[in-house]
Sequence to fold (208 residues):
Amino acid sequence: MAIEALRKKSPRQVHDDISAYAERYTDHDWRAWLGAGEEGRAALFGSLLRKWQATRPLAMRRVREDAAHEPPFLDELLAVALKELPVLGDLTVMTIPTRTADQTDALDRLWHILRQLPTSGAATCVGITKAVLLVTDGRIGPALDSQVRRALHVARAKTCEAWLTFLQDVAEDIAAFEAMHGTLSEAAPPQWAHVGYGRLYDMALGPR
Fold:
């Protein structure tokens, strides 16, 4: 069944929904991430994901200097994940449907790298997609938390293949909205117009 969450909204509704997104996740968290330098970025990665309850109820890995668990450490996982970015290039949620085979392989590797976020067990799509949103600076999203899943009437993605199918449906939803109303960026509040489409879509559906 097609996802029709965005295409059923007017530009005014999208603007208001993004404006109403919880400030604790925008003004502080997102700006902190986008403005972070290389030093301390891994610690911030963990701090934000813990705040966002990405692996709840499982404990999340820590960076090497703070860890009281066996490897891999969070900074190591992030470093490995970032190595996939050159393969992904400028891929966004909008271009997921036309991705190359190499990009599909990179996304699959990213999925399996980020499954290791907890100290035991494996992260679900909730933690993985929240981490992907950060790693790609908002280009690929939304995060599949419970609120977004309820808004979209979708179940948890248990595999990378299911996640990619979901992202294709999101891309179609955004494209349908833009065909009727102009770009999603134009509908967003000016201070967020520069944000990646994965993040904007997330903000249009996320916590208030």
User: Anything to note?
Assistant: Residues 11-205 form one domain. The chain has eleven helices and no strands. Residues 5 and 54 are 23 Å apart (CA to CA).
